[in-house]
Sequence to fold (566 residues):
Amino acid sequence: MIDKDLIQRWLANSTVTQAQADTMLVDLAAYKTERSSNKFVVAISTIGSLSIGISAILFVAANWVALSSEMKVLLLLGSTMGAYFAGYKLQYESQTFPKVGASLIFLGALLFGATVFLVAQIYNVNANNHTLVLIWLIGVLPLVYAFSSPPIAGLSALLFYLWIGLYIFRGLESTRAFADVARWPILYLVSGVLLFAIGTWHYVSERLADVARTYRLAGIKVAMLSLFVLTFKEFFKLSSNTVPSDQFTGGLLIFSVLALFLTLSALYANPAKSSTNTLEHGLSLGLVVAALMVFWTKTPPDLTAILFNLIVVGLVFILLYVGYNREDMKLVNIGMFWLGGLVLVRYFDFFWQLLPRSLFFLVGGLILVFGGMALEKKRRQLRTQFSVQPAA
Amino acid sequence: MPSKKTFLLLGAFWVLIIGSFIASKEFTLRTGQDVLLKTVPVDPRDLFRGDYVILRYEIGTLDLGTIPGGNQTLKPRDAVYVTLAVGGKYAAASSVSAVPPAGGLFLKGTVKDTHSSRMTVEYGIESYFVPEGKGRVIERQLGRTVDVKAAVDTSGTAVIRSLLLDGKEVSFSK
Fold:
């Protein structure tokens, strides 16, 4: 990426003239200012859209009696279409306020969900019905492809995971549901890998590169969270004496087959044209296999937890390595976050019993303070080095 | 840039989804047979979750030892079809089946739990939404009879029409 140091080096090597270097420096400063301004506008617009979306959902929750059901549906559906239309006009037709337009389209996607829940409320559909989230997801997905919108892609990823949870863990009071709930990290690990592979295949279309990255990052985050839970041996003890339901097992198998198929095909085809393709998808395959082994076999809890701790440590360093090489701050942040989290909980695990309490908290506090300072310093150094974030 | 046609098609798609959702529920309400279902008391502390009433029905707990069709192996989350007898004031469960019955009025449900010879079933009508703040009005009526009037269509799907307290329809209009 071009930065001030690179321009100075070109000037010193006579690659560019002084006049050219001055022009490039002015352009670079203008670019950075515009980028900051754009980010600010996007942030404000998104916060505004989210606030309006939240107010719509609260309107639904309040179940306002002043209006008839028909009026409420028309009001919310009208607001949905209004936000959607206004967003399209601003972003694509007049192109006067493209960032605000994008936020309004995102707001439209949120209001669509609120409308679905309003209709459900009017007809007294069970409050935690997974079908409602599925309807919302189906409504939102075409927008991801029509507008190549990362925020809407992020919303669809969130709805996907929410739907999995509501579908698989419905009927929470039944004894079988507990057996399924105890295995949620395995299911979410596999679905994280699946979403990562789905994201990879979106690189087939250059127009969907941002969507691809959003899905891949969402997959990485959920997979890391699931792996983190799997580092606790208590988790394996919790699930060892229970039998999962056929529905959970069937769902896990379907997701695993899809994840394996998409990952294997991405390994061969490399749609992302990534230099670390073999590493990415080799690891993905390994994670699915590890998840299935844990699900099907009765491995000793201590040994399994140690294995997953090693997997998490390995993945953290791979994320940091790939993030550093690609100058991708998001990957670095994810790696650092989970490194910090893992160190913290393992510190608790090992030293809670061994050390006197006062010493435990003193040492722990010092590790947190100085460790946090070191991590933050390193993060800032990397952030100033990176100016363009390439694809994940 | 997405074309105007794409934009309009997507808008129409949303309207179609919402319209279909409403239509499916309206179909049940307009074509379904009305039944009166007796509710059973729930823990008052759990009666309200936010602003909706949790409902439990007499037909939600079935004695597999006595009800016809109770000898079938049904597991939690299996679909189940409960034939209703509507001779008395309340609709009662007359038989249970893992497949839709050939005729008669029946409710489609999901097995929630099986324990000994008892099976708990949910029919998708266990929530009744009330306006914000109005739930306490109903909560103070505990001890009175709470009934639900529901429409049941030919596929066994039910939609709540109204909630009744001591036989009177609960209304929240201002």
Notes: The first strand of chain B starts at residue 33 and ends at 38. The mean pLDDT of chain B is 84. Residues 4-31 of chain B form the longest helix (28 residues). Residues 63 and 130 of chain B are 32 Å apart (CA to CA).
